[in-house]
Amino acid sequence: MSSDEENHYVYDDAPKKRVKRKKKDPNAPKRPQSSFFLYSNAMRTSVKEENPDATFGQVAKLLSAQFKAISETERAEWDRKALQDKERYQGEMENYIPPDISDNSDDDGYAKKKKKKKKDPNAPKRNMSAFFLYSNEVRNRIKEDNPGIKFGDVAKIISKEFKALAGDERAKWDVEAANDKERYLREKAEYEGTV
Question: Is residue 137 a contact partner of residue 194, using CB atoms and an 8 Å limit?
Answer without folding.
Answer: no
